User: Fold this.
Amino acid sequence: MTSQQHARVARVDTWLANGGVVVASSERAARSVASAFHSTRRVEGLLAWPTPEIFSWEGWLRERWRERNGGGLLLNPLQEQMLWGRVIGKSQTGARLLHPGRLASAAQQAYRLLANYAPGALKSSTRLGWQGDPAVFHEWLNEFESRCRRESLASASLLALQLTEALRTESQDGGSPRRDRPGLLLIGFDRLLETQKDLLNAWGEWQLDVPTEDGPGDDAGASHFFGATDGVTETAACVSWLRDKLRANPEARLLVIAPSLQNRRGELERTLLEASSGDNADLDFEFSLGVPLVHVGVARSALLLMQWLHEPLVEHEVDWLLSSGCCAASDAEEIALAEAMYAVRSRGLERPEWTLDDFAKPLRPELAPPAAFVERMLAARDRLGREPSRQSPFDWAELTRSVLEIAGWPGFRPESSVAFQARQRWEAVLDDCGSLGFDGSLMEWGEFVAATETALGNTIFATESTDSRIQITEPMESAGQLADDIWFLGADEENWPGRGTPNALLPISLQRETGMPHASQQADWELAQDVTRRLLASAGEVVFSFSRQSTSAEMRPSRLITQRLGCPGHLPPDLTNADESQPQLTETFEDASRIRFPHAALGGGAGSLTRQSLCPFQAFGTARLATFQWEPAEPGLNAKQRGQLLHAVLHGVWAGSAQGGISSLDELLSKDLRAFVSEIVDRVMRESFASGRRNSLPSRFPARFLELEAERLTKLVTEWLAYERERLPFVVTGTEVDSEVEVAGLRLRVRLDRVDELANGGKLIIDYKSSSVGPAAWDGERPDDVQLPLYAAFAGGDHLEGLIFARVRPGEAEFRGRVRHATETLRIDLRSQNALVAKPLTDEQLAEWRQNIERLGEEFLAGRAEVDPKDGQNTCGSCHLHAVCRIYEQPVATILAGEDEGADDAKDEGGGDA
Ligand code: SF4
Assistant:
């Protein structure tokens, strides 16, 4: 323990021994003080001792208020929020709002701010001059207070004020506080509000326990400010420091503080876990910051089950619920549920929303989920259906327990300690929701489910403290905690002092005058200054650090910390693997970890080499780890399905007369285009949406939707064929042509959309595109698309005339690509500046493509799988492997640098003035 810690433990012991009470600023601070008290008793060899009088501020306030108020109901936060929602909903302004309930939380917060910072403004007459939104809030507040008076309800916001009044009334000698009340020692308060001081003065004896920065035995002074190149380096240095500290003193208590901790929680947790497993260092740590209960599996699954019993869930929620294990009766059932969803998705039958009936009773028996699961879910819904449509929240809460049990929640797995704690919290929230009937109101099941969702979102869940050596928290939360040493992450201009927004329902002038949080930058600055002063005084060594580069911008050090500690220095070399003051050097080494691709053929076709070019890990993850991504279900057809339909129609058009299509320019010129295309589109639509057919598209769409889709396709393809009519003579020799190509000893299957034979006997390869891609996609050492160059360079033969993208887009029909003699074989009207003419296909070009593709093939075969996106975020943005390659955990500057440069090259090239 530091001398500061020893001193505080001694002060607390003395205070308690003299009959005093300790009040800490928060629950966590109270637990920290109590934990130190109990440790000291154990060190003294005691086996049992009386429970110390240590409270959190809120807890102490509630207890003292209850002692003095026999009647009336103290509203819990959920009840108060609901009351605000009802007041707002019934007001003139609320009646015009789409979701009046959403303002309830802001109104509740505004009320609390008034009570804490500006109690004078609680008097209605002082608010008469308020304008705009504050004037509307003034009306709501009048109505809220009048309902509380009528129904004997008390808001927790007023406890301090009401207790102050009660204490003053109790005073016997003309206003002086009574002397028989225990003295209060206040711990962990960065500052006291005037309303708190009034209350404490009315109580009697009190004292603020403040560690002093310059006091005797002061450990402060060993403080540093470091700048790291990026967030990953900063976190790694902090973890290194923690490890060194614990090696030097295994009993040390260390505090890591980070503003906006939630944003870097994952990265910090991973780095700590890696360091723990790396060299067996016991870095036991815990986050004091909880997460909203609605994000905790056991609670989220309960909520989703409640919702599914009466309304559809969106598809990703169903996916999550089924794989959570919280509604399965066994391992086998959990797998069978996942397989049922897989069967649905792999047949293209995904849908944006699933009712319980859609999922439990599919039309196709092979898609049915396990019978026992269906039976439980339908039984739970029947149980719900037997209830009256409106009843008290208390009854709904009880019913929720029953239906969840019938549905098999929370699943078959033995409960971990964390899951147990989360379920206990869930039960408490359910009780709170049941208490919403405090005013005798009834509600429907849907309203009760919505209230439960709100309550879960507002409830922060943190597991019980295990008293770990390393505590991780946010600056304000750290009040009351003492540590041997502290590391403060993210001390940059953006985050420290942090910036919040003032409350929109209170006049900004009032907020500034009374010093409400975030009312001005000055107020935030002063509060952060107090916290910084407290931190510097509460540990032996205090390190502040910041990262010079965030994901999107260069960062500057916090001015507040610079003022106290001077400009940030480089991280010391012993906390990094490199000397940050030296320029970074690249060290080359032979990577022995590559595993050669063992097969001679590759199923992924040209796509695998395109991925190898875009990012070697993308090719590895897709072709060798077999990862793939579900297409998101959309209300209409998704982009892939639309593309499938377009290809099917164009395939039908050029299928030759035996198949009802055509195969040459002469035949094209002889057709009534619209009638011809319409007939083919109708046939393709019928076949594509026929249920039971292999690869059929979802059959859930209404007839009118399909008619509109058919109209769209007819228009698009007619427009395209009108463009093709302007071509020089050609004959289509094949569509959807499968071919095998060998690259660097690797056999690849390639499918070509279409191959034409031109007037000079040459071959033209055509790829249909509905995007704006151009031939620049084929260029460079790392091309964006290798499919056509692959075929052209390795299987094109001597008579290859060209390769082109057919851009089939409304109003933008166009060929783009490389053709040897475009004006003689493609279109006579092409101008000299058109890229088809200006940049013809040449043997040199083919040789270059061949060389680049050969190299990509060799790299793929050799097992080259680096995380190396060609174009930073532009490449990663359309890749589904983030979670596997963990790109966003790499140093930003080195991986995603220069992300926007040249991003549109591929899109902008090409002719177009034919
Ligand atoms: S997300 Fe980016 S880095 Fe990761 S595999 Fe895909 S392209 Fe490569």
Q: What stands out?
A: The pocket of iron/sulfur cluster is lined by residues 615, 617-618, 621, 867, 869, 875-876, 879, 881-882, 885, 887 (CB under 6 Å). Residues 213-220, 891-914 have pLDDT under 50 and may be disordered.
